[in-house]
Amino acid sequence: MMTADARANYVAAAPAPLGPLLEDVRAALASALPDADEIMMYGMPGFAIEGVVVAGYAAFSKQCGLYIDPAAIAAHADALKALQLKPTKTGVTFTPGRPIPAALVAELALASRRAKGL
Question: What separation in angstroms does the CA of 16 have from each of 19, 51, 105?
């Protein structure tokens, strides 16, 4: 599990414009996955259920990423395209100029959970 201090340190280490995005994504994930444990895995914060990572998020130099099951990305491809967000096989990148809406974060997290059979 991850402590609040570890999360705060991760956010504090992110480039200044990205910190609020990370907090927004974390809040949306926590709301969508209330029974999940907050974790630090592969150097990034995220949420796991029964030891299975459902969603992770990270900051880079100019953008953030949300990492979820590939089936969740595929199921929401049209919504991501409509918002002009850049999906990869397992994630979505976003920036302060093009943030990911909290409602979409929640939908992606729930889809990822379903895809993992949790």
Answer: 6, 31, 21
Instruction: Write down the residue that tokens 């969603």 correspond to.
Output: 55
Q: Are strands 44-49 and 91-94 parallel, antiparallel or unpaired?
A: unpaired
Instruction: Give per-residue pLDDT as tens, 75-96.
Output: 999 999 999 999 999 999 999 9
DSSP character string of 102-115: HHHHHHHHHHHHHH
Stated as kind and residue range, the H or E segment containing 4 is: helix 4-13
Which residues does residue 98 pair with via DSSP β-bridges, in sequence order? Answer: 95
Give the pTM: 0.94
Instruction: Kindly report, residue by residue over 95-118, the tens digit of the pLDDT.
Output: 999 999 999 999 999 999 999 999
Please give the Cα distance from 72 to 4 (Å, whole number): 27
